[in-house]
Amino acid sequence: MSQTVFGRLHAVYEEVRVVTLKRGTRIEFYYMGKGMFASFLQYLGEGVFVWMTVADVPRKLRGVEARFVEKVDKIMLPHGATPRVFFDANLIRSGIRTLINSRKPKLFVDFEMSMPPFKYNPDFLSELIQCGMILCDDAGNIIEQHSTFIKPFMFPEITDRTRKFLKITQSAINNGVEFPEFHDQLDQIVTLFRPMIVVWGQNDIIELRKAALYHRLPDITKKAQFVDLLKLHKNYFGLKNDVGLFNAYKVYADVDPEKQAHDALEDATVTRIVFDGFKKVCNGDSDICFKNPEPAPVKPVEPAPVKTAEPASAGPTEATAPVVAAAMPTAS
Does the predicted TM-score (pTM) go above 0.85? Predict the structure, then answer.
């Protein structure tokens, strides 16, 4: 279970990724994961107010009860009639909701890449060898879908590692199309339908750009609107770590799929399913929520004596908080 807390920032202890909020006369302790703490440290200055979603059950950190911060919701500095808002998750989610509900057609794309040989080859460069695409209209109906093998140019023969991992044969590659032909096919779809191109992660965008550059062709990533669905998830839910595509699929589809086939069209299909599930979340039709995992427990150490000005049941106060925090263990 989780709860939302709000208060004026009292102190920041960088070495242990702990922040304290002053709530009434009490000083309450909260700890963050490394990524989250690094992201928000620049905003945690004197006088700011912080809203956070935290774990309901506290943990003991060197004799101090501290709650894990699942996500930061808002950071604001009072400034007369126009407070300075450094971060507001609601505004971010509103923007994502608008993007997801765009009436544009959607093109779900996934690429598979050639893989290096088992024996190290310093000259090897990965290349696009398969693309899966599903084009849907603004109502979500499939207009067309493709699974296309692409002949690698620099290393025409795929490696044993590629064949084994992707279950792709050399014959299938040999019967594929040259990259310029595939580029023309994708460009025609982009020109005709002007879709929002949905991918999971930045790798597909980067590899498409690299291939176009190598073949001296126009960069489609500059012409089309690419949307990284993984990045939208991280921003919407306040996640600090990446989520695997099939892990997201398991959550939205409520299934435990068999081993991932590493087929581009299958991955494009899964991306479409995840997009539909995420759209329901954005529109309030689903209560699915991704959370940051709680960091591993701090290595056990002998607690240092802590002097308190009040009985222990009253909790830390503004006067005792620095003493308590100083007794906390350093980050492992």
Answer: no
